[in-house]
Amino acid sequence: xxxxxxxxxxxxxxxxxxxxxxxxxxxxxxxxxxxxxxxxxxxxxxxxxxxxxxxxxxxxxxxxxxxxxxxxxxxxxxxxxxxxxxxxxxxxxxxxxxxxxxxxxxxxxxxxxxxxxxxxxxxxxxxxxxxxxxxxxxxxxxxxxxxxxxxxxxxxxxxxxxxxxxxxxxxxxxxxxxxxxxxxxxxxxxxxxxxxxxxxxxxxxxxx
Length: 208
Prior knowledge:
This protein is mainly alpha-helical. It has nine helices and six strands. β4 (94-96) and β5 form a beta hairpin. Helix content is 50%, strand content 10%. The two termini are 30 Å apart. It has one domain. The chain has helices at 8-21, 31-49, 68-75, 84-93, 115-128, 133-139, 145-148, 151-156, 185-205, and strands spanning 28-30, 58-61, 64-67, 94-96, 100-103, 163-165.
């Protein structure tokens, strides 16, 4: 499949989703679970290396933090954010029904994924791969500050829609301990500083 005309974010996200799907024997996964595994990988990678695996915008939705681009691609359907050529590329490697996203038979490269990207994606699968989609959504992702800051809106207020998440929130710890993402304070501070430095550099270049 010719990718020369596809943007790098579309290519990388498609490779990310296929990489996660490769851990399932059937190359098929509940879409909510797929998106939550990516969130877990992103939280892990941000706190270790100062960067999201997905390099994408995050929003809070009713069932947890969501990478907007990942959700668009995992649904494999026409969306205002994706043009016809994007859909041809995505549809070559992924298919979807009402609930699940599946890998197609087409082989895909992983050249847009770094070794630390793969480390984080594998960690997410090893940590949460045996859990159900809404268990991860409701009993894990809702504990963390990037979503918990909007709890009143989504739970108590019956809110719908989405709220933008500032990626800096991925460095915050939950109020009542952390079973999954607990990390050495010095390493966490170093990753946070790296993220801020990179963000400032991009802003100075006018590319943020």
